[in-house]
Fold this sequence. Notes:
alpha/beta; 8-stranded mixed sheet; 27 helices; 39% helix; globular
Amino acid sequence: xxxxxxVNKNAGTVKIxxxxxxxxxxxxxxxxxxxxxKIDAQDNFGTLVVLPTGAGKTMTAxxxxxxxxxxxxxxxxxxxxxxxxxEQAAExxxxxxxxxxxxxxxxxxxxxxxxxxxxPIHIKAEDNVLIVSKDSIIRNLESLDKWLKNExxxxxxxxxxxxxxxxxxxxxxxxxxxxxLSLKILGLTATPFRTSEQEKGLLxxxxxxxxxxxxxxxxxxxxxxxxxxxxxxxxxxxxLGDNLGLNAIKSIEQLDVIPEDIAEAIxxxxxxxxxxxxxxxxxxSYKKYGQTLVFALNRTHAFVLKALFEQYGKKYGIxxxxxVSGTSAEFIGINISNEENQRQIEAFRRGEIQILINxxxxxxxxxxxxxxxxxxxxxxxxxxxxTQMIGRALRGEKxxxxxxxxxxxxxxxxxSKIAWVNPESVLFDEDNEFVNKDFxxxxxxxxxxxxxxxxxxxxxVNETVDTTRLESLDFIKRVPLGMYIFTFIDENxxxxxxxxxxxxSTKDQYEELIAALPDLFKELGIEDExxxxxxxxxxxxxxxxxxxxxxxxxxxxxxxxxYLFKYFAQKESAPLFIPFEEIDRxxxxxxxxxxxxxxKDMRRSEQNNYINSMxxxxxxxxxxxxxxxxxxxxxxxxxxxxALGEFEYVLEEENVIGEERDITALSLxxxxxxxxxxxxxLKATVFEKAKTTTGQYRCSDCxxxxxxxxxxxIDHIVPMSKGGLTKPENLQLxxxxxxxxxxxxx
Length: 746
């Protein structure tokens, strides 16, 4: 049988086209390339180019690389995290290869590597440009060996560089650095982020030269390169917040994920769906909106909207298409391939379909210049996601797009339970970046605290839970000092936006734990971005017994520690801490208000007026912080009782007399459980006894020293099985290896 050949669409040779590129660069692109040419004189660099969506960041980078790298036989490694981004990059290289600028070569080769393109094993030494997915190359780093052999210089491009904070990128970079070549790293992003001191710890590990070139949206709008956004807000009058439980609120506020039952209820709401579609067609609005990109809530929602758009649009000759993330939509009996997604995108580009409905796929990186309008039918709490969705319609007239862009948001009634981001709140600040306004940012922070306060309220009104110790605490100690804020990707590729509230009771413990994480991860050999469940459980046990105890008021949350470890496994950096001094803790300290009520000897009617004025004051944070008026009033009454000296902290009378036993006969763990204060005192004594003059802790066996408690364990000198007691003179500090060796010998 004759050998059958086929064409590999994921690799090929690009012939340099004769003449001049008809797609001319804009002034900002020319300036960006000039800046890149200047830094290119360095042997090594790591820098960022920040261009808003629609400003042509991919074309800018590809044009520069074709001249500075490919034409000089230098290799390019382009990394992205989405398949469509890989294909867009390959297209940018092939469409902009012209002889006017590329004078030394007549052709070059490229290869796309991902789970849906070519495989790493097919990489050839002669490939000039490798365009790879991060996930595919991280598992096959050795496949780069033959490609990098004998190379003295490499250009590494990180597309959508705001995602580059995960240590997988650093692992790729570190591997390449072992090849002893000059490494030139360029990060591309349209998503705004700040290079504050706290955030530099993440991006600064890759982009050591910070931002090389940046231009703002306002400038590009004035130049006609980007469209002028026109925001329209459409109230659906659909009530969705009435039965929203605490878990649902947490899921939305912390993960930007609407729980499935609520999402399905929204997707199935016939009135809401008809309202969305009618908005497009009524009063001939379809003529104004033109090519429209619809962001749907989920796959079910997308197909319901498609059917309605085509039903209403039939007489106007308007067609709709759907694209979804992933490869299938099994639960609605529809299979959607990436090829089908691409066909729908191309049909939208050509104007064959006027409405493209998508789910989690067209937020970044895909070029759709003729998009005139975006319909935001899914709410979000993420300013970054809102920016990316808005950006899909911002390609201006001079860039082949439109003069005006319509941003149409559909607003439901959630009874103020969720701090949704709306297009109007994602505005230009003094630096003309898309950011949340300060007041909105402040409200969001307090709203996050309020979720925890609602949970606390639920415990207090539950008569089966004893909360007298919590209520007896000085109220200001129940107000957080601040919060750690961070984002990580879980094992199911779901993004988590998490916050850890920090109180007087946990502040020092979190600071010690976070400082110890680098050494602890190194000692336990944790290198992967996803920690295996058994190891994660072990890690949590180590840190809980070392730094936390159940006697803390307010208590720590085990999930907070779990998520902190998952974050650190990916980012290897301390999370950002936001102190609450900026929202003035005293404004929500009810002890102050209670003392004022008592000092003025207010009558009941005066108290009610005072309480109502506090609750309704828009400049006060009380309503945001407490979230529930009944909870607020009850807490204030307790503080009034305290101010009057009428609050009693009553311990329930114990009617069982247990057998007395010497506490030293119990294990340290059991002592900490039964008598936390004494257990903590014992631990502190052992650590203090093992401390060196330089403040380090020393292993009693091997002499290893470290400033971090988590690297050590407290152990009995004479084992309890041989009569040893749990008292200071029989306790020692061992490093984990020595303690493990001792256990093996016993």
